Amino acid sequence: xxxxxxxxxxxxxxxxxxxxxxxxxxxxxxxxxxxxxxxxxxxxxxxxxxxxxxxxxxxxxxxxxxxxxxxxxxxxxxxxxxxxxxxxxxxxxxxxxxxxxxxxxxxxxxxxxxxxxxxxxxxxxxxxxxxxxxxxxxxxxxxxxxxxxxxxxxxxxxxxxxxxxxxxxxxxxxxxxxxxxxxxxxxxxxxxxxxxxxxxxxxxxxxxxxxxxxxxxxxxxxxxxxxxxxxxxxxxxxxxxxxxxxxxxxxxxxxxxxxxxxxxxxxxxxxxxxxxxxxxxxxxxxxxxxxxxxxxxxxxxxxxxxxxxxxxxxxxxxxxxxxxxxxxxxxxxxxxxxxxxxxxxxxxxxxxxxxxxxxxxxxxxxxxxxxxxxxxxxxxxxxxxxxxxxxxxxxxxxxxxxxxxxxxxxxxxxxxxxxxxxxxxxxxxxx
Length: 431
Known about the structure:
Shape: globular
CATH class of the largest domain: Alpha Beta
Structural class: alpha/beta
Largest sheet: 10 strands, mixed
Distance between the termini: 47 Å
């Protein structure tokens, strides 16, 4: 880590322009050997994963943490004190953290219904941002974030698509781009696993948790452990289900590998076949994405016994005229045409989360573009959201990427934007 630390302790960070009252963002002078001051919004789980990745890279001190659950704050402060020898400031509201804490960068690790408002507030505060995926809850929020980052073009914004750092995916992409698999005629993307569930019975939230604030601009639904901490990912009003929450990683990777934009037509079928009454998004889903270059089929199954071949339950299958290629986070496989016995296995292990955070911190120091821009994150997020729109509207969705509109389908088009719960205001403003 010494080489990385020297790298991250050099370079220049441009000063930000403040839109909120608070300490002035000082920036870093060239060659200034001072750690970046990091704030983290949402420290119940993945925000802390990202914070620890930053500390592993080096050149960072977590100086402020924010969470709507006081128990999360207490736990994160104790852990960070052990890791860095200093306790961060604590805040319940991110607006207070941005106003009062002296920060260079902020990590957004909150649930998706909060991403848009928090990211825009960070940009207006004049800090650089590492935001977890999905970029936004709805398509119109994503467009608002693209426009916000253009407005604040001096800020670095990275999105947590960590698989863009995977050497396995990169090597497989080079193999495919070199034409060694022949023309790719279809791709299958899948993540099958047995989803664990907890108590879905409505009940009072823990005394430490401000549930109204947790729900934020989304609907205020009855609390249960199944829709609360960590388990919100399979709740429609927050995580929006497995495709949007986890499948988005492989969809983003597929787009990166093949140079795809967004699909022009989407159909979907599935439902709740095993987890009815426990989750509110499909436990079984197939989505057909028709891109200009090829069809892409997403499948997930959140129940059942062990897969017929567990080795391919999480990854992407590329069906080429000369070979089939399977790629996953840490390995990729080539099956030559008509020669399954001669398949070639390639291992390529890497610490994706640490590498992605390292890329972001290097961008902060050097002001170069990050591995995943907000515009690219918007395309990947839009793709999976269109899959859920096709499912929820039970219709064929025809997408005009240039206009960012769904054609001739008012019911589906209405799902591009979710109204915010008062007093929150949706950031999208039509041109």
